[in-house]
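Input set for joint prediction.
Command: fold jointly, output tokens.
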Amino acid sequence: MKADPAVQRRLLDLAEADAELNRVEHRRRTLPELAEIGQAERDVRAKRDELVVAETAYRDLDREVRRLENEVEQVRARGQRDRELMAAGGSAKQLEDLEHELQTLARRQGILEDEQLEVMEQREALETNVTKSREAVDAAEQRLAEVQSRRDEALADLEAAEVRRKGERDMIVKALPDDLAALYERIRAQRGVAAGLLQGARCGACRIEIDRTALNEVREAAADDVVRCEECGAILVRTGGNR
Ligand SMILES: [Zn+2]
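tokens >
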């Protein structure tokens, strides 16, 4: 295959554009934000789980507070009824029984009210836990959103770089003869790097020194011959200095 040396040199720009596109793709897959997002997501899940535990503990104790309130209310109502019965009068035995029951109810009410105070204090502590837990969830969600937005910015930058490079690449390819463009694409699909500058005896694509015999063949080839590196298969682009 033959191609004008100036046209062949455009292959180096094409290879550079492809290398940049590869770097963009690599950066996209290895953005540090991706790992940070994984960590932030795990953190959000953990904080949400903690909130569920705190809320459950709070609800259980809240039920206990209300159960005690009902019980105290029942004891009070019973005492009220006994006092009304006493006021209405009755036999000495009946009055004595009522008096005895009122004492029992008063003791019971005292015990229940002490218990009530205790669980109300506990409930207050659990309410604080729930509040703190909710704040922790909010903070974790905020961190996640912040990292996601940094990732989105980074992806948008990469996307812009990719669009720009693809545009350059398309222009270069369009200007190439069809057979040379096809050869380049075929080598790129098979080997990755499809063109390199010959620097001294070194191939710019694979960085390997070409052996003397092959090098002599390359040097003897006409300037418009398309020659390839025998190590990596890339098109070897020669500048005037190599001949
Ligand atoms: Zn090579």
